[in-house]
């Protein structure tokens, strides 16, 4: 984490299209109905956000209004209208907003429009692309990988002084579990680690073609040349207590990459959300604000644990027992005991 290792900048584009509708053209403007001044503070008079603004979810990137058809007025509305002598604005707010769970800083704005001589599809007056960048430091839950399919998720980030260290006091950067090797049979990562240790100490770069790489005898020789034991294992000391670990531990240099599955994109929660119209079960997926799928295997886990009431709740009122859902909501509000679910 220090020296901002594994920090990536993630750029995303949001596109807003201004169309010509049957009722008249859409307009980009900062004059949007029913939106407070606070939300509009970063917009210019065309309703486009300024470069450098910080945005969070639901903030307006481009203010856009679409004309609405004239609606039949009720007598009350007509009365109010004539008293206040104002024509209610027949537009609806169709602004482009930052999606759920996104954040960042505006780094670029591209505007394509008919007036500027750009060719656009039929019915489109202008197209605005906004680039939002965010700096993402590495965090618990992000995914790293080596070059041998040895991918994994960060489970903990510790201060340097708590990490294990070698006899000369060099701290270890990343600890990988040895259980990731036998089942996947990717021994290349071990060879890469040992050869990296030797190459780093002797100051050369090893170019190793796949399937014709250095044999382990050669790697052992290189380690000996570099002054390490030929099995590549060193005595390490626990950074928290300063005691040596019982066994020697393999240490070396390995190339690690940060993958695009970052926890910030994955994190998601639901309390009340949409239900599928067909099965009446909650929708799935982050994009729909859905729930976590509780599959067969998870049901078996609860069954094996004997958690009968949790299971009943999962399979009935949290899922497709419509009457039970509303009854449960009522009893929670009224602070009564929750009624038993209905059988279908």
Automatic annotation (TrEMBL):
GO biological process, one term: DNA-templated transcription
InterPro entries reported for this sequence: DNA-dir_RNA_pol_su2, DNA-dir_RNAP_su2_dom, DNA-dir_RNAP_su2_hyb_sf, RNA_pol_bsu_CS, RNA_pol_Rpb2_7, RNA_pol_RPB2_OB-fold
Domain RNA polymerase Rpb2: 290-335
DNA-directed RNA polymerase subunit 2 hybrid-binding domain boundaries: 2-288
Superkingdom of source: Bacteria
Keywords: DNA-directed RNA polymerase, Nucleotidyltransferase, Transcription, Transferase
Enzyme class: transferase
EC code(s) of this entry: 2.7.7.6
Segments traversing the membrane: none
CDD domains from the UniProt entry: RNA_pol_B_RPB2
Pfam families xref list: RNA_pol_Rpb2_6, RNA_pol_Rpb2_7
GO molecular function, one term: DNA-directed RNA polymerase activity
GO CC terms, sorted: DNA-directed RNA polymerase complex
Matching PANTHER family: DNA-DIRECTED RNA POLYMERASE I SUBUNIT 2 (PTHR20856)
Protein known as: DNA-directed RNA polymerase
